[in-house]
C-alpha cells in the first residue's frame, strides 16, 4: 500500500481507512440499515441495492486511489464503521478537489465527521500539495454546511440546478477553502481542537 493510501489517524478515537473490497459486506450492511435517513441527501443510495454493487464501488475506489485521482475512506470511530469521507476527482493541474462525506445518524452530533474532515483537509494541503478545496451541499442540508463552516470554509456561491436529487434539481451552496502556506500548520491545529469542541489559545 502506498503512503497515499495509508490509514489516516485523526486521534485516539477516529481513523480513516482506505476503502477496501474486504470491507464491502460491512459497508453494505451499514448503508442498508440506515438507507432511509442517508437517502435525504445522497443520490447513490438508490443505486446501491446489493453487496455486489458495494464491492464494485470499493474496487473503483481502489483504482482511483492507485491512480491518485481520488481517495475514499471509511470512517471508523473506536474501530466501528460509521460513515465515509473522500476527496473526489482531484484536479492536479489546478491543485483543487472537492470533499464529500456522510455519517450514520447514531454517530452524528459527536464531532466525528468534523474531525475526520479536518484530517482530510490537512492531508490534502500538506501531503497532496493541493491549494483549493470545495464542499458542496444542498441548501437545506444545514448540518453539512455547519461542518464546512467549522473548518474555515467560506461561502463562495449558489449552484442552481446543479445537483439532481431524487428527481428534482436542487440548489446547492459551494463552500471553499484555500491553502495559506504560512498559517497552514497552525490552522490545522486550530481546526482539530475546534472539531473536538475544545478551546485553544492558538489563533490564525
Structural commentary:
- The protein has helices spanning 24-33, 35-38, 51-66, 112-127, 142-150, 184-195, and strands at 8-9, 14-18, 71-77, 80-91, 96-103, 132-138, 154-165, 168-178.
- Residues 181-186 and 199-204 have low confidence and may be disordered.
- α1 (24-33) packs across α3 and α4 runs antiparallel to α6.
- 33% of the residues lie in helices and 31% in strands.
- It has one domain: 3-Layer(aba) Sandwich (Aminopeptidase), CATH 3.40.630.
- With 204 residues, the protein is of the alpha+beta class.
Supply the key terms.
8-stranded mixed β-sheet, 204 residues, alpha+beta, Aminopeptidase, 6 helices, 33% helix
Average pLDDT, all residues: 89
Approximately how much helix is present in the residues?
A: 25-40%
- The gross shape turns out to be globular
What strand line-up does the widest sheet have?
Answer: 1-2-3-4-5-6-8-7
Number of domains in the coordinates?
A: 1
- The termini sit apart by 35 Å
The main pleated sheet reads as: 8 strands, mixed
CATH level-two architecture: 3-Layer(aba) Sandwich
* Coarse structural class: alpha+beta
List the helices and strands and how they pair.
Elements: E1 8-9, E2 14-18, H1 24-33, H2 35-38, H3 51-66, E3 71-77, E4 80-91, E5 96-103, H4 112-127, E6 132-138, H5 142-150, E7 154-165, E8 168-178, H6 184-195
Parallel strand pairs: 5-6
Antiparallel strand pairs: 1-2, 2-3, 3-4, 4-5, 6-8, 7-8
Amino acid at each position: 500500500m502506498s503512503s497515499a493510501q495509508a490509514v489516516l489517524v485523526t486521534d485516539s478515537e477516529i481513523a480513516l481507512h482506505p476503502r477496501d473490497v474486504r470491507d464491502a459486506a460491512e459497508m453494505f450492511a451499514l448503508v442498508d440499515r440506515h438507507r432511509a435517513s442517508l437517502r435525504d441527501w445522497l443520490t447513490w443510495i438508490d443505486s446501491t441495492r446489493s453487496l455486489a454493487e458495494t464491492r464494485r464501488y470499493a474496487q473503483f475506489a481502489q483504482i482511483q486511489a492507485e491512480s491518485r485521482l481520488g481517495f475514499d475512506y471509511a470512517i471508523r470511530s473506536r474501530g466501528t464503521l460509521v460513515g465515509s469521507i473522500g476527496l473526489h476527482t482531484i484536479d492536479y493541474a489546478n491543485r483543487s478537489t472537492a470533499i464529500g462525506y456522510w455519517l450514520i445518524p447514531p454517530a452524528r452530533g459527536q464531532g466525528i465527521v468534523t474531525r475526520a474532515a479536518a484530517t482530510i483537509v490537512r492531508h490534502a494541503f500538506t501531503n497532496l500539495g493541493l491549494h483549493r478545496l470545495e464542499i458542496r451541499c444542498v441548501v437545506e442540508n444545514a448540518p453539512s454546511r455547519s461542518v464546512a463552516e467549522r473548518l474555515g470554509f467560506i461561502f463562495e456561491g449558489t449552484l442552481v440546478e446543479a445537483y439532481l436529487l431524487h428527481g428534482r434539481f436542487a440548489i446547492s451552496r459551494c463552500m471553499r477553502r484555500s491553502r495559506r502556506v504560512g498559517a497552514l500548520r497552525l490552522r490545522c491545529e486550530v481546526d482539530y481542537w475546534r472539531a473536538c469542541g475544545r478551546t485553544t489559545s492558538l489563533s490564525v
